[in-house]
Amino acid sequence: MQAIDQLNKKLDALLKKYAAMESENKRLKDTIASQIKATEKLNKRLASMDQNMVSVNLGTGVVDEDEKDNMRKQLDSVIGEIDKILNTLND
User: Fold this and answer.
1) Phi-psi region at 10: left, alpha or beta (left = phi > 0; alpha = psi -120 to 50)
2) Consecutive 10-residue runs of the chain (91 residues): their mean pLDDT?
3) How far apart are CA 72 and CA 91, in angstroms?
4) Rounded to 5 degrees, what angle do the CA atoms 59, 41, 43 make?
């Protein structure tokens, strides 16, 4: 009889451990799911920031002085052409 009581106690202890592990497993799965959602949200935000950074870099991407001078010359040329067209339209 004593052996059966010991087996019952061990079985109860194992069932309690099993229940505790099941609940911990569920909690960990929920945590993983929320972390995945947070990671996806952060990845989307990072992609958006990368896109914004590319846009900003396009505006300030000319670093070399020779490139700046060439761009100024091209802009001056385009502005000069626009001025010529406006003058002919005004005449």
Assistant:
1) alpha
2) 92 96 97 93 89 71 72 88 84 67
3) 28
4) 50
With a CB cutoff of 8 Å and minimum separation 6, the contacts of 36 are: none
- Written as six digits, the tokens of 77 are 């040329």
For residue 90, the model assigns a pLDDT of: 76
Is the pTM above the cut of 0.85?
Answer: no
Looking at residue 59, its pLDDT comes to: 63
Instruction: Please say whether the beta carbons of 71 and 62 come within 8 A.
Output: yes
* Phi/psi of residue 84, nearest 5 degrees: -60, -45
Instruction: Decide: 68 and 62 in contact? Cβ < 8 Å.
Output: yes
Residue whose structure tokens are 């067209």:
85
Give Cα separations from 46 to 9, 35, 41, 53, 62 (angstroms). Answer: 54, 16, 9, 10, 24
Helix (H, G, I), strand (E, B) or coil at 16: helix
